[in-house]
């Protein structure tokens, strides 16, 4: 991608409407723009991050045995009346009448629609378990939308739903999603910690929130320090016993202030740290809460009709973009983990008008692109200081600076956004090392080594 | 993918609500389900096709120099009042009031929102041309939704918008999109022919519809037979002169019945064929129609503020899925082009309970998967006849039949969905040939050779 032709309207000053870091940097880096209160347009750079997160989720949800579907955003009110939630949901539900006066709504969540689909299609225990997910827009008409994507009205969510013959099997599905979530957030380059959640308004038995730790987070959390270093499940056999992972990740203490119980925490003494967090995922096992009123039943082995056991599993996809920024930034801008950065690296052409050095920059750019690097070239005719400032603001993990002065000395400069350190390397060696790291899938390690 | 664990609720009987072939087969093959009138859920198999089409569009739009954005589905009525279309749009616009009583709407199209974004961010001719696209949901409250995805209410569209300093440059952007569209439809494995369109309601100067030819199409079309065989632009330099492609593809006669002029067609004598078509794309150059009322101006080289010249370019993404089925099916079901098939091929395990032959089927499946084939295994414990019928219905291009009887004779059977022909090959040779075709990107040719 040539930044000279890309739509990246960066802003030098802090926008007055942005009260938190992520909102401020997403506006300044040209990632999003508000179109109406709480409703945003994703600009190219922001959409790249969102899409990478979506694809990580897809890959891991499929591994865990979930199949992707896509429900509509507009739903009929009838289903919500059937489940008993239509009145309860209150003003946050965007209610709509169509041209024939029929009551519709913009889905704030999809338990009703998926249960309706299930009850029409699945009739026997033989067809279970069923595990479906989607990545789709939701709308919640917040009374005071704020904090950018953190509490917007239209937003992207991943929601999954499990259907099982009984409690025991539905807990297995819960473990699948629990393990999948540990892996998803880890792949995004962040640490999200499962914390026991209140099963309150949505009801049910087993529930965890996944909180991303960030000093600027919305909630106070208490968390065993081992969670910061604990190994993420690897080479997972999703058909095997997953309870060991669940045990490991729930045996030590972690809770938001709402659920905090001092005497439980005390058992771990000084190992409990107090910090702040942002909710990025939520898993629920709610048994027959929806299948009973909506009569979603299957025939069991004994030929008896029984309501199916369900769970739902959400990730705030657009919220993750903001959450990662809250967890990873400095005064100058965002510091993206490689896995979700808009570009893994940028070749910064210091002087596009200098034919010779510009040719070197372009050759390196094309060569890295051919080797599957997700690379852009900053070939804009701006002052070099303003280009550096933009790259710091946008948070590109790796910057390769190519200019006439360095080339005279036979080198180009590689800068790590995270450490701020740089190394000088020859044109040949820098490409070799980057291509090697990419082919070994260790670009993040390479960046961390600078 | 193991079909035994996949959500593919196929239906044996023709559903009474489906009046056209594509709707019927999409329901029967378990690709979609209606949730409310004109509003559908995409099931896993259907979503795979939709996603493949989306990705073809992305790849080609990026090649043509367009950058992806994602606007919200919910828009403010204010912008539409400013452009003067709020009242004109009529009952097809889904109008909504939020909790504060503010007038919103579900976007039926995005000219207003994108022009608003542009006018706030772009101020100078130096930032032009700007070419942005999105793949996003739209809603049009059709009075009588019907024909499944062909005339649904909530649907997926690709819409692109160009912004140029003057008429001459905006025509260049128009050519870019025109050529990109020829390539996009060709990559989907279909032939869509550009036909001069009425610039009526949306206004403007230059406009073409792209019609997919299908005997069951909605419109009668007259079209020069050369268009059926004409070469699609290849190795396109999008920064070069594209007018030659435009000339080539517009110099011969093609028109829908609405635009048909007998004396123009007559010049081509017997070369004009009369058939039917389905609109899948539409490109417009409409000059300053929106930039003037919305005051989207830029500074030109002389330092004078002038309204920007715009174009918009749509593809009915979900409509394409239905359109391809209308153009490519038989009595038994769908016949997918390889590029957009839910799976490129399926290994049909004839007898999953036979350990030996089932192991061979599974080994082949895993090996092909490792070689990047988009392959599924039909390991369902159904009658083999019903499995064959399902594969014909779903329209998998290539079926590899592995059963104990064939293996006794040392072979497996490869079946082409399109021709119905089959060949017997050894377990080794069949894999070699498929892997070779895949690595050479010639899987469609291979299928066609059977």
Considering residues with a beta carbon less than 8 A from a beta carbon on another chain, report the largest interface and each chain's count.
A-B, 49 and 49 residues
Arithmetic mean of pLDDT of chain A: 95
Task: List low-pLDDT spans of chain A.
Answer: none
Terminal residue distance of chain A: 25 Å
Strand % of chain A is 25-35%
Give the quaternary arrangement of the chains.
Answer: homodimer
Globular, elongated, flat, extended or rod-shaped: what is the shape of chain A?
A: globular
Strand element count of chain A: 23
Structural class of chain A: alpha+beta
Helix content of chain A: 25-40%
Radius of gyration based on Cα positions of chain A = 24 Å
- The number of helical elements of chain A comes to 13
The biggest beta sheet of chain A, please? 9 strands, mixed
List keywords for this structure.
homodimer, 450 residues, nine-stranded mixed sheet
Overview in brief:
By secondary structure, the first copy, chain A, is α+β, with helices and mostly antiparallel strands.
Give the topology.
The structure is a homodimer of 450-residue chains.
Chain A (H helix, E strand, L loop, with lengths): L20 H8 L3 E5 L2 E4 L1 H20 L3 E2 L5 E3 H7 L10 E4 L5 E4 L4 H11 L8 E10 L14 E11 L2 H21 L4 E5 L9 E8 L5 E6 L18 H8 L3 E3 L5 H5 L5 E16 L9 E3 L5 E3 L1 E8 H11 L1 E2 L2 E2 L10 E5 L5 H16 L4 E4 L5 H11 L3 E5 L1 H5 L3 E5 L5 E4 L1 H13 L3 H7 L1
Parallel strand pairs in A: 3-7, 19-20, 19-21
Antiparallel strand pairs in A: 1-2, 4-6, 5-6, 7-8, 8-16, 9-10, 10-13, 11-12, 11-13, 13-16, 14-15, 17-18, 21-22, 22-23
Helix pairs in contact in A: 1-8, 2-5, 2-8, 9-12
């Amino acid at each position: 991608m040539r930044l000279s032709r890309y739509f990246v309207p960066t802003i030098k000053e802090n926008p007055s409407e942005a009260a938190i870091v992520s909102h401020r940097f997403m506006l300044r880096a040209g990632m999003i723009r508000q179109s109406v209160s709480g409703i945003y347009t994703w600009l190219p750079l922001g959409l790249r991050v969102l899409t990478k997160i979506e694809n990580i989720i897809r890959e891991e949800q499929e591994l865990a045995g979930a199949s992707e579907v896509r429900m509509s955003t507009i739903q009929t009110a009838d289903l919500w009346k059937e489940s008993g939630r239509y009145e309860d949901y209150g003003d946050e539900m965007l209610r709509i009448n169509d041209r024939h006066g029929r009551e519709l709504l913009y889905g704030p969540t999809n338990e009703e629609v998926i249960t309706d689909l299930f009850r029409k299609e699945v009739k026997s225990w033989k067809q279970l378990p069923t595990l479906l997910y989607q990545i789709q827009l939701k709308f919640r008409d917040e009374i005071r939308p704020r904090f950018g994507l953190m509490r917007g009205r239209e937003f992207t969510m991943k929601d999954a739903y499990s259907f099982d013959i009984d409690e025991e099997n539905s807990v297995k599905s819960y473990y699948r999603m629990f393990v999948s979530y540990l892996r998803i957030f880890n792949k995004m380059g962040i640490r999200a910690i499962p914390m026991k959640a209140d099963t309150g308004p949505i009801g049910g038995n087993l529930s965890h929130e996944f909180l991303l730790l960030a000093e600027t987070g919305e909630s106070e959390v208490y968390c065993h320090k081992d969670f910061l270093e604990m190994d993420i499940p690897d080479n997972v056999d999703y058909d095997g016993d997953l309870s060991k992972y669940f045990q490991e990740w729930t045996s030590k203490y972690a809770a938001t202030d709402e659920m905090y119980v001092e005497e439980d925490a005390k058992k771990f003494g000084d190992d409990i740290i107090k910090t702040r967090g942002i909710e990025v995922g939520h898993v629920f096992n709610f048994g027959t809460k929806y299948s009973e009123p909506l009569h979603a039943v299957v025939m069991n082995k004994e030929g008896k009709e029984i309501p199916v056991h369900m769970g739902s599993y959400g990730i705030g996809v657009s919220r993750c973009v903001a959450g990662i920024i809250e967890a990873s930034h400095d005064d100058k801008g965002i510091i993206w983990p490689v896995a979700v950065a808009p570009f893994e690296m940028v070749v910064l052409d210091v002087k596009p008008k200098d034919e010779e050095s510009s040719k070197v920059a372009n050759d390196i750019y094309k060569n890295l692109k051919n080797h599957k690097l997700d690379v852009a070239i900053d070939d804009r005719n701006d002052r070099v200081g303003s280009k550096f400032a933009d790259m710091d603001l946008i948070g590109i993990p790796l910057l390769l600076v190519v200019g006439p002065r360095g080339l005279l000395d036979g080198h180009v400069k590689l800068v790590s956004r995270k450490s701020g350190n740089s190394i000088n390397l020859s044109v040949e060696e820098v490409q070799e090392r980057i291509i090697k790291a990419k082919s070994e899938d260790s670009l993040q390690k390479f960046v961390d080594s600078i």
